[in-house]
Design brief:
- The protein is of the alpha/beta class.
- The chain folds into 2 domains: 64 residues, no CATH class; 129 residues, von Willebrand factor, type A domain (Rossmann fold).
- The longest helix has 22 residues.
Length: 241
């Protein structure tokens, strides 16, 4: 096993995990420092055990995983196509066409699909809040019907696609067709490292153009019907996206 085979997918920000581990270690040292002179050997052993537990928990929170080796196959290479089906793909800023319709026309037109299906073992997915297999016939439905997802979780869906490919032969690739915005602002680095470890290139086509699209609304309602001058009050505020 070499270090490049280890993929780190931390449960939270690594700096926060490291800071928490250091803080726990400081507390442990301070707790045993009080009675160190009376029982130095016992305290040293207990402190070492507690520090080992802290180190183990920190390692688990960093989320290490090891990819298993896979044998090459003589069949067609797998191509996973991830098509963004979130509602933002309905925006018509790609030469006056909706982003999803433009992606299908430019990348997944019938002639292009025939070439891809001939050379690759193609797996077609739609993704928004989750990853969903798509049939080839669904590409004729258009943006108004197909792009209805309320969120876009690019990092999570790419990771799920890579995890589903575990155990299959090498020689895979992913084509990602999206307007390039993750609703949760999730870090893409863990998914990229996982793809690198599995030798899976990810090709991207970022769709969209310059447009003015208002997608936020603010509603503010006072909780009290009447207030005296100088009297504090409360306002209920809600943001709609």
């Amino acid at each position: 096993m070499i270090i490049c085979d280890i993929i780190w997918m931390p449960a939270g920000p690594p700096l926060q995990i490291g800071a928490g581990a250091i803080l726990l270690a400081v507390f442990a040292v301070a707790a045993y420092a009080r009675s160190w002179r009376r029982q130095p050997r016992a305290n040293a052993m207990l402190l070492a055990m507690r520090l080992a537990v802290i180190a183990a928990l920190t390692l688990l929170l960093m989320g290490p995983s090891i990819t298993s080796p896979r044998e090459d196959s003589g069949g067609k290479p797998r191509l996973s196509i991830l098509l963004d089906t979130s509602a933002s793909m309905q925006v018509a800023d790609c030469h006056n066409a909706a982003r999803l319709d433009y992606a299908i026309t430019q990348w997944l037109a019938p002639a292009q699909r025939q070439k891809l299906w001939q050379d690759y073992d193609v797996k077609l997915y739609g993704f928004d809040s989750q990853l969903t297999p798509l049939g080839e016939e669904s590409l004729s439905r258009g943006a108004g019907e197909l792009a209805r997802g309320r969120t876009t979780r690019i990092a999570d869906c790419v990771t799920r696609c890579l995890m589903e490919s575990q155990g299959r032969p090498r020689g895979e690739a992913i084509l990602l067709l999206s307007d390039g915005h993750d609703s949760e602002d999730s870090a893409l680095a863990p998914a990229a490292l996982l793809a690198l470890a599995r030798n899976t290139p990810i090709y991207t086509a970022c769709l969209g153009g310059q447009t003015l699209q208002r997608d936020l609304a603010l509603a503010a309602v006072p909780k009290q019907e009447n207030l005296l001058a100088g009297e504090p009050g409360e306002i209920v505020v809600q943001i709609y996206q």
